[in-house]
Amino acid sequence: MPNHPVPVPSSVLAALKNKTIHLSAAKMIHSLFLVNASGDIFLEKHWKSVVSRSVCDYFFEALERATEPENVPPVIPTPHHYLINVLRHRIYFVAVIQSEVPPLFVIEFLHRVVDTFQDYFGVCTEAAIKDNVVVVYELLEEMLDNGFPLATESNILKELIKPPTILRTVVNTITGSTNVGEQLPTGQLSVVPWRRTGVKYTNNEAYFDVIEEIDAIIDKSGSTITAEIQGVIDACVKLTGMPDLTLSFMNPRLLDDVSFHPCVRFKRWEAERILSFIPPDGNFRLLSYHVSSQNLVAIPVYVKHNISFREGSSQGRFELTLGPKQTMGKAVESVLVSSQLPRGVLNANLNPSQGTYTFDPVTKLLSWDVGKINPQKLPSLKGSMSLQAGASKPDENPTINIQFKIQQLAISGLKVNRLDMYGEKYKPFKGIKYMTKAGKFQVRT
Amino acid sequence: MQKLLQLPVNAVNIVKGVQGVTQGQEEALSPVLTPDSGPQNWYSAVQPEELRHLRSGGTEDRSALEEGLNSVQTQPLRHDDLKEMLDSNKDSLKLEAMKRIVAMIARGKNASDLFPAVVKNVACKNIEVKKLVYVYLVRYAEEQQDLALLSISTFQRGLKDPNQLIRASALRVLSSIRVTIIVPIMMLAIKEAASDMSPYVRKTAAHAIPKLHSLDPEQKDQLIEVIEKLLADKTTLVAGSVVMAFEEVCPDRIDLIHKNYRKLCNLLIDVEEWGQVVIINMLTRYARTQFLNPNINESLLEENSEKAFYASDDEEEEDKKAEPATLAKRKPYVMDPDHRLLLRNTKPLLQSRNAAVVMAVAQLYFHLAPKAEVGIIAKALVRLMRSHSEVQYVVLQNVATMSIKRRGMFEPYLKSFYIRSTDPTQIKVLKLEVLTNLANETNISTILREFQTYIKSMDKDFVAASIQAIGRCATNIGEVRDTCLNGLVQLLSNRDELVVAESVVVIKKLLQMQPEQHSDIIKHMAKLIDNIQVPMARASILWLIGEYCEHVPKIAPDVLRKMAKSFTNEEDIVKLQIINLAAKLYLTNSKQSKLLTQYVLNLAKYDQNYDIRDRARFIRQLIVPTDKSGALSKYAKKLFLALKPAPVLESPFKDRDHFQLGSLSHLLNAKAAGYQELPNWPESAPDPSVRNVEIPDWSKCSSRKDRKEKKVEKPFYSDSEGESGPTESADSESDSGSGSASASGSDESGSGSESEESGEETESDEEEEDEEEEKKKRKKLDKTKAKKQCIINFDQFDMNKITSVFSQTLAPSGSIKMYELLHRIKGEGLAVEYCFSRQPFSPEPNMVAVQIQFTNNTNSETKNLHIEDPRLQSGMRIREFAEIDVLAAGESVTVVMGIDFCDSTQAANFQLCTHTRKFFVSIQPPVGELMTPAFLTENDFKKEQGKLMGMNEILEKLTLGEKCVNEHVIVERVTATANLSRVPCGSDKECRFAGKTVSSGCLVLVTVTTKEGGGAQLTVNCEKMLIGTMLVKDILQALSQ
Asked: Is there a single domain that holds both residue A167 and residue A315?
């Protein structure tokens, strides 16, 4: 662009006058520290000048103040830096920031880092990270350049750095070959940066899992206070070449609140309500959606409960019965009930009609592994709780958290109509699976 | 397993420690180990040992090793073994050494003494060794500046490599080495890379700019030049990175953005997600300096009417009602098409999977969009709340701020903020904040019921916050104040001290607001003092009684009597309040309490706590008149019983929106370093023409041939055609969108991207080897295309003009306007235009007749033209035209179809099908086309107008445009804008028009009264207020041109 003068509007000039011009604001992520549950820093990485790990002392202070691990504030200001942390898999990922940056930007990136580790090592634990410290370092190096995200797509990263496998570790040790791809990251240059080039499979398959989670709060009397469905479509696509897929639904109207993987063509969706995309290779989340309208949300289980304490008595009564409701004829499986009983409860002496229960007298956590609900013989848990002698009756009412699974059902009624592939000649194998789970499903008592 | 990776190093050290005794002498003799001397053998002996550790993982003797390690680590490490390995010829040894060194760096151990040994390997052939050396180099170069210089030449060589990826990585490492001496080299490299053929290298150059800037701020001016150059780049790959550089180096040089503004808006959707965040944030600031406040007319009302907006449905309506009133006062606001462009192009990103992108768009809408449109972000933000708790935390902070300004927006989602017992406390408290902000007369009962369950929670901090929230609801909503007070009073009998204390404190605050009405509650609390043990609560009660002892004249002395009895057993804060109470009673009711007060003061005099002793002494001096007492005691009553202002219970998030939402500063409610202030809207808009791009570069993408040639730079979704020229406004959204989407879809599926890949490879090679030739080729191409381009340009301009006409409904004189339905390039030769013929549609009188003209520009005939799959808003109907069997090459045909728009300007979307293809198209009517002329007499007109007064009348003052000199022009303009007929009129100062809406037959009456000096007044009477408001806007615009 030539250097001809551009007229600057007076308002801009006025705005400029009020501005203090600062020097060298090093933006974005400066350093990253990984802290384990016992408060040790076990990995550090700096993208700019080194920041002393003593900066984490502010984080440890906050950690001490917080009663629960998840109560550490995500953003902690210190005199010269800001610490932004996320907690995943009992590891704190603490990023050091020096100046203004959208906090969500950093948080989202840190979660992406964790997802990548999980993708690479299967689990994201301290042990896994320590075992693969070199790969971790190489990944972090590629993911950020000078603190600004560079390559965060798992497909590109896998092209650059091959995920470790047992076989490869052995081979590498013997032959001295490397994890680093010989290839250069051509994916970054492509118009579809999320897909590896030159993908080849002998069996071409595409699987889609429609998974829905029900979040609900049920009040004392059994009526629904709030209920919503969080759905995702996770895909595992192993297709040769550059397939172009379209996925259509029987009832796309359900999907009015969606977010997409970047591969999905927005405009096509807007116009036709069809998902059209060139998929990344391997596992990815194609779509997540939210059904919040309450009348659309069926509640598949009900709970009858009677948890009561009598004044002056050191005994409390506990009765809980579960039953199916609106399950479209499918079985409710893997049911797990848990509840945090009041602090005053010393012990619980209960009798489950099926499954097993445990009560931890220290944390006061009651959990009951029910298994499958048999509509003919409803599972129940009955018995008594013993209270601290002399203590008055607890004020609080425990809430009951329920987990369950229903196979082959998307509770919102979402149905995939068809999946078509263009751009490649072969016939892929296609599979769709539906599942409904409980998300944050709570019953107040 | 955990320490596995530390092991190799440890193992060596330990072995060394053990062997050190025997080998010590040898080492002392040869401090510099040569590859072929003894230590080499020594090393190879160790090697298998480590491999065992590497492979077998947790060995039994690990704990022993670790213990050993601690003792070893206290001594300085010498790493001779590692140096040894690095010097070897085998890549595998080097790699092993580098891996261990990197593991040391990762643990924060100092490995700087290895610098010379490592830097030697910078040119190593093995790619992994090389990468790890880079990692090391970037980490330690700053400390070892001189030695780091040794590596520079390698990178300089890399910068000239024919492979773009090697060039990029060389630049990346070179710019990451923080050594001031190489600043000139870096500057040169960045400048060169900025004009590299490969967009990837240019992207790397953009990344390097902030690095150099932080190393040497003196370079700023030169770097700005590079930024300016890169901002002009048309690839999505570069856009995000260069804006990042801009934000860091020269965020105040808004003037650099003008020319690139439209391009950035259009590319946005294809930029990678992190770049999107940065661009959106920057554009938010830009828009605040360049456009007018879209809510300018409401901003006056806002303060007064804040309480008036409750339900979201109401809100919009009220907006509409408010509009006419304010419009009359102020100049009409017309949104700059560029402003609209930004809003439109960011909207789809609300569906991004990246929370940061969604938040960025949300803040953009919050700060820039007209009030009526901001609502769309609520749904997306509520969706984010399902994400990780950290995301939830940040989003809730922002929602809390937004919900104060725009309560209606989140009201439909009230239940999404209900609290679960499993939420972390910090999330619970934030949700509580949002719920409190959302409370109003209609939903307060639901919210209070919800709060009641919260009070029973086991999380006591949260219970305390809930009680405070109830207090705030009570202060904000007068109707429930008594209910809340009663509820809180009940809580006073709670067993939990914290709950009681918090309730007392909140009650105290509430009572302070209107103590007269609540003497019964004060009495009740006075009774409670016998039972409540929490000191804070007792103290609060005593303060209340003392403060309002006039309202409870009988009880107060009695309380003091009880307190005097128990004085010695009370906590200190309670004692202080007892003294206070005594003092106040002494001043108001000395007859009854004189002795009691003296007794209390005497007790206090001998208290253990010196604070209490001091207080007693001080108060005695002040209130008990003696000979010595000074001037102050006269004022004792004023001092003690001064009217104390009621505490204001307001949200801590109030006014936080002066920080840009989503920013760190907003979250902390304090200005973070490097925060860019969000500028205030300008009073008058700066010149919009600065954003015009001088040379519209149509040749880039308009023809198919060009497209192929430019494949590399072709974005995935966004159509770069819209790059220059003022773009259509939101009203015609689907028009260009649907067409291009289907086009790009077919492109991708048809030609496949593999060919693209190879194409680009060859291209880049070619470009480097013989740029000259390339240039020549291009010239040739240009020439051959010149003619073709000419036509295309014409088309494009034409379309542009039409779309702008479409959106703004400017009225060019008289004739009927044609709108484009399908451009012939998108339609693969089939061009479709339509117009509103303004003829009654005979088959169904309440439909608008749309005349459609098909032109077949291909060489073959098109068959079976028909409509399929209409997508309509509820109530809308379509009457399709009869299928056209054959349209021969070069022929045109015109048909008429009817659409019942239900008197709304919603677009009718449908598919236009030929025998081979389907095209998505949409027709959106300007409001003026939704009516047909109605023929009235002057008397009828006046009679009807009389019926449509009040809310149905919209008055607007305007200044006539220069060309609107006479009545004739006015009539022409008005009738061009809307399908109305003229009503005869006695006065020559007035023009009257009448029509009725096609669908429901509501009357539309328009009056234009001209005044001296070019002023005029426009009156529109219509039962449908929406139609009226829109019509006013359109006519205003037509007349003021």
From this structure: no
Does one domain contain both A27 and A103?
yes
Count of domains observed in chain A: 3
The verdict on A348 and A419 lying in the same domain is: no
Q: Are strands A365-371 and A333-340 parallel, antiparallel or unpaired?
A: antiparallel
The interface predicted TM-score of the complex, written ipTM, equals 0.88
Map residue B504 onto helix, strand or coil.
helix
- Contact B302/A at CB under 8 A: no
Provide the chain B residues 481-500 that lie in CB contact (below 8 A) with chain A: 494-496
Which letter does DSSP use for residue A427 in this model?
A: -
Residue A386 belongs to what domain range? 301-407
In a domain, residue A30? The reply is yes
Contact B241 A148 (CB under 8 A): yes
C-alpha distances (whole Å) from B416 to each of B396, B420, B423 are 11, 10, 13
If you measure CA to CA, which chain B residue comes closest to A125?
B2
| Same domain, residue pair A171 and A65 | yes
The residue of chain B with its CA nearest to that of A184 is B165
A104 inside domain:
yes
Residue B755 CA to residue B761 CA, distance in Å, equals 10
- pLDDT in the model for residue B726: 41
Put residue B829 in one of left, alpha, beta given phi > 0 → left and psi -120 to 50 → alpha. left
Residues A287 and A362 in one domain: no
Distance, in Å, from the CA atom of B797 to the CA atom of B499, rounded to the nearest integer, reads 71
Note the pTM of the prediction, 2 decimals. Answer: 0.69
| Residues of chain A neighbouring B730 (CB-CB closer than 8 A) | none
Q: What is the DSSP string of A38-85?
A: TS-EEEEEESSSPPPGGGHHHHHHHHHH-SSGGGS-SEEE-SS-EEEE
Domain boundary pick from A189, A220, A241: A189
Q: What pLDDT does residue A180 have?
A: 59
User: Among positive and negative, which fits the CA dihedral B779, B783, B789, B793?
Assistant: positive
- Is the confidence at residue B985, as pLDDT, over 80? no
Query: Residue A185: its pLDDT value, please?
Result: 56
Q: Is B135 on the interface with A (CB under 8 A)?
A: yes
Q: Show the tokens assigned to A227.
A: 């209920």
Tell me the per-residue pLDDT of B926-946, one tens digit each, with 9 for 90 and over.
888 888 888 888 888 888 888
Same structural domain, A91 and A185: yes
* Candidate from B139, B165, B738 with C-beta closest to A185: B165
pLDDT tens track for B394-445? 999 999 999 988 888 999 889 889 999 889 999 999 999 999 999 988 898 8
Do B749 and A423 make contact, defined as CB atoms within 8 angstroms?
yes
Using a CB–CB cutoff of 8 Å, tell me whether B757 touches chain A. Answer: yes
Q: Is residue A334 part of a domain?
A: yes
CATH number for A139: 3.30.450.60
Q: Which residues of A touch B425 (CB under 8 A)?
A: 67-68, 71
| End-to-end CA gap in chain A | 69
Give the chain B residue whose CA is nearest to the CA of A265: B717
A401 and A415: one domain?
A: no
- A208-246 pLDDT, tens digit per residue, is 999 999 999 998 888 888 888 999 999 999 999 889 999
**Residue A3 within any structural domain of the chain:** no
Place B901 in a pLDDT band, splitting at 50, 70 and 90: confident
Q: Supply the Cα-derived Rg of chain A in whole angstroms.
A: 27
Contacts with A48 from chain B: Cβ below 8 Å: 178, 214
Of A189, A217, A234, which marks where a domain is finished? A189
Shared domain for A170 and A47, answered yes or no, is yes
Which residue(s) pair with B458 in the sheet? Answer: none
Contact B717 A219 (CB under 8 A): no
In this complex, do B356 and A104 lie within 8 Å of one another by their Cβ atoms?
Answer: yes
* Mutate: best of B392, B452, B458, partner A, most A CBs <10 A: B458
- Report the CATH number at residue A438: 2.60.40.1170
